[in-house]
Amino acid sequence: MSDDVITIDGPAASGKSTVAKRVADELDLIHIDSGSLYRAITWQALRNGIVAAQATISHDFLDAMQVSTDLKGNSITFLVDGTDPGLDLRSQSVAAAVSDVAAVPDVRRKVTECLRQAAQSRRAVVEGRDIGSVVFPNARFKFYLDATADERARRRHAESTVPSSGVQEVLHALQTRDRKDSTRSASPLTIPSGAVVIDTTTLSIDSVVDTILSSVSDDAGKAEKEEIR
Ligand code: DC
């Protein structure tokens, strides 16, 4: 398993995706969004008429599902049974079901295996909820981004393409998602041991990216000095 990864975990709308992509761009690394794989599996389950309740995602269904990867720019895209779900990953139906699908232990095992494989032969920035705690517990660099629920709801609402939902509605959906993600028994959202925690509530994307880049380069500098000694 590659430990040469940068992990970025945190709740929904904590700024993970934008930050992870920017850090990967700056360091010329591959960017892997693990949430997109949970969404792709959910999409395929829904297409196959499988209701996204935990008990209905069978071991056989997951076993038969082929997950492959494609590189678009520096970001990994996950294909399920040869198909890229594309914008469907962000559909309402996938969004409504994905937390339940992501709570199924067999689904988590499959995603963990695919993520380790995707990062095996290349350095990557991997984002999600359990990346530093479960998928790459020995990663050299771990970060955990957070922000208040109100601020995260404000961000989600501002980027929302569904005009009918107000900030309060978005806040409620976000809190429900947070609760499911952090209370499930299989690898819940948690601050990984050894992670640098960054509260992004009042920070710009640029300053979060800068904080991560300087933390990575400080550590690289220290390692170099130790080697010279
Ligand atoms: O980050 P996102 O909204 O695309 O994540 C979709 C869902 O997948 C969300 O309910 C959290 C879950 N998820 C997870 O449980 N573990 C991860 N490593 C990534 C996402």
What does this structure look like?
The chain is of the alpha/beta class. It has one domain: 3-Layer(aba) Sandwich (Rossmann fold). 50% of the residues lie in helices and 16% in strands. It has 9 helices and 7 strands; from the N terminus they run βαβααββααβαβααβα. The protein has helices at residues 16-27, 34-47, 59-64, 92-102, 105-118, 131-135, 149-159, 167-183, 205-228, and strands spanning 5-9, 30-33, 67-72, 75-80, 124-128, 141-146, 196-199. The strands form 2 sheets. Strands 2-5-1-6-7 form a 5-stranded parallel sheet. A two-stranded antiparallel sheet has the order 3-4. A hairpin with a 2-residue loop joins strand 3 (67-72) and strand 4 (75-80). Helix 1 (16-27) crosses helix 9 (205-228) and helix 2 (34-47) crosses helix 4. The longest helix is centred in the last third of the chain and has 24 residues, at 205-228. The radius of gyration is 18 Å and the shape is globular. The two termini are 29 Å apart. The model has no long low-confidence stretch (mean pLDDT 90). 2'-deoxycytidine-5'-monophosphate is lined by residues 12, 34-35, 38-39, 98-99, 102, 128-131, 177, 181.
What proportion of the residues form beta strands (DSSP E)? 15-25%
Q: What's the average pLDDT?
A: 90
Major beta sheet, strand line-up = 2-5-1-6-7
Please count the beta strands (DSSP E, at least 2 residues each): 7
The general outline is: globular
The CATH superfamily is known as P-loop containing nucleotide triphosphate hydrolases
CATH class placement: Alpha Beta
Radius of gyration: 18 Å
Count of separate structural domains: 1
The helix/strand series, from N terminus to C terminus, equals EHEHHEEHHEHEHHEH
**Percent helix among the residues?**
40-55%
CATH topology: Rossmann fold
Number of helical stretches of at least 4 residues: 9
